[in-house]
Write a structure and sequence with these properties.
The chain is of the alpha+beta class and 490 residues long. It is 36% helix and 27% strand. A hairpin with a 5-residue loop joins strand 14 and strand 15. Helix 5 packs antiparallel against helix 6. It is globular. It binds glycyl-adenosine-5'-phosphate (GAP).
Length: 490
């Protein structure tokens, strides 16, 4: 655990040093739990988003994508239940005034127990917490915290308030017209992208002539005033979701729930996440809209945590929007039922898949980061830091490196750059010794490097170097683009 902790800290520093992720507003000492993606991070994030978008909208004929606004009518959040229910049980330490999400406080305590070799006790504490959370038993949760003498990380005391609910939505004001009633101008920053899909259900169904079962996909920013934002980009106050609502005939939702559970796990594996690093975790306490829910968890360096949620949301959201908007939000199904009659009008049920793009990014980076050392043939030690990001999603695919800045080598390299850059991201560099340039490309995760040297001028061949095993081979210059395209498309 301690070792994993060190590796995680190294990864965070590496992300900053190589232009993947920066603390937001760093020159002003940062803004808690808000991060900016740098030049390489933004590209990796885009590649992940594109893969998801393609798998949803291009590879499924019955799923279409939309891009709804972040601001929505405030009644949306009343109808969805977020104004009344989107809250977490919190507890404050009276000495430090620090506020904790109760489940996070208990989970952190259990992690410490586990690290101290008390795994059975840790399991017991977590199981008790699950039962108490499922019953909304706040007095029981406080008693669990006190009985185990869980301490505030700042004051180191166990002097706690009662457990209370705290709404996680950010509020802001809309428009410039002042009103006597401050609530008149209130709008919320969306805490999930899903509602933009629900309120557009009829628009998309009718204009796209969609037939059930069908899905609507969307990617975009979501905002939550998380109380304890921890673990780098794992839990942020501004983050990005990739959500898909799949509309199905009532009564078929469990079939689709199981389908999407397996399909989503398979998708994660298709982008290089090993199956044994993923597992399902069924929810004990269901959200107000769900009749079944599970998390796809990944084994992060700080333990098994939620990467994606699969939720059977029933007809809750569409019915709520129909009630609050007084519009008929239904679907006419003219397929025939077992009695030979059309299914007719109904409110579709919904199975949702919802993955955090930032968490997916952290998953990929946790798997990719390696600090390797070995002994060279001459007995000298050697080492490197490498990001083994799968070629398909790596931000830069190919580095083009003329061995020297002279003798016509840069000209040949530039020609190759021009040939390849329209098809995939390339990086050109002629400074420093070749070994140093390779190491830099390892550190930013570039899967292929091509070196142009004097032999290239004689026989039109180049050295290609593979990042993961550092193998080098000679191939025809004319084969470079084809080879890289093959590797990134598998
Ligand atoms: N529409 C359903 C929904 O929002 P959720 O389980 O609250 O469900 C879905 O969120 C996903 O969004 C999570 O599995 C996680 O990947 C991501 N997510 C949620 N809160 C997050 C946060 N504060 N920071 C980063 N990602 C977050």
């Amino acid at each position: 655990m301690a070792n994993d902790h060190n590796i995680f800290q190294e990864l965070i520093s590496h992300c900053k040093e190589y232009g993947y992720i920066f603390q937001s507003s760093e020159i002003y000492d940062g803004l808690a739990a808000v991060y900016d993606y740098g030049q390489l991070g933004a590209q990796l994030k885009k590649n992940l988003r594109d893969e998801w978008w393609k798998s949803m909208t291009q590879l499924h004929e019955n799923i279409v994508g939309i891009d709804a606004a972040i601001f929505m009518h405030p009644t949306v959040w009343k109808a969805s239940g977020h104004v009344d229910n989107f809250s977490d049980p919190m507890i404050d330490n009276k000495d430090s005034n620090k506020r904790y999400r109760v489940d996070h406080l208990i989970e952190a305590f259990a992690e410490d127990l586990e690290a101290a070799g008390k795994a059975t006790l840790a399991k017991e504490v977590l199981e008790t917490m699950d039962v108490l959370l499922a019953k909304d038993d706040y007095a029981g949760l406080k008693a669990l915290i006190e009985k185990n003498n869980m301490k505030c990380s700042i004051s180191k005391t166990c002097n706690w308030t009662d457990v209370r609910q705290f709404n996680l939505m950010f509020k802001t004001e809309f428009g410039a017209v002042a009103s006597d009633n401050p609530d008149d101008n209130v709008v919320y920053l969306r805490p999930e992208t899903a509602q933009g899909i629900f309120v557009n259900f009829l628009n998309v169904q009718k204009t796209g002539r969609m037939k059930i079962p069908f899905g609507i996909a969307q990617t975009g920013k979501a905002f939550r005033n998380e109380i304890v934002a921890r673990q780098f980009i794992f839990r942020m106050r501004e983050f990005e979701q990739m959500e898909m609502q799949f509309f199905v005939r009532p009564g078929t939702q469990m079939e689709w729930y199981n389908y999407w559970r397996d399909a989503r796990k398979a998708w994660h594996e298709s982008i290089g996440i090993p199956g044994n690093k993923l597992r399902f975790h069924d929810h004990v306490k269901l959200a107000h809209y769900a009749d079944a829910a599970l998390d796809i968890e990944f084994e992060f360096p700080f333990g098994w945590k939620e990467l994606e949620g699969i939720h059977s949301r029933t007809d809750f959201d569409l019915k709520q929007h129909a009630n609050f908007s007084r519009k008929k939000i239904q679907y006419f199904d003219n397929d025939l039922n077992p009695e030979g009659k059309p299914y007719g009008n109904y409110t579709p049920f919904v199975v949702e898949t919802s993955v955090g793009l930032d968490r997916l990014f952290l998953t990929v980076m946790s798997l990719a980061y390696a600090n390797e050392s070995w002994t060279k043939e001459d007995g000298a030690p050697d080492s490197r830091v490498v990001l083994k990001i799968p070629a398909k999603i790596a931000p830069t695919k190919l580095a083009i490196l003329p061995l020297l800045k002279k003798d016509g080598l840069p000209e040949i390299a530039r020609e190759l750059m021009n040939e390849c850059k329209g098809s995939f991201m390339c990086f050109y560099e002629e400074k420093d010794a070749i070994g140093k340039r390779y190491r830099r490309m390892d550190a930013i995760g570039t899967p292929f490097c091509v070196t142009i040297d004097h032999q290239t001028k004689e026989d039109n061949t180049v050295t290609i170097r593979y990042r993961d095993d550092m193998r080098q081979e000679r191939i025809a210059l004319s084969e470079v683009k084809k080879l890289v395209l093959e590797k990134i498309n598998t």
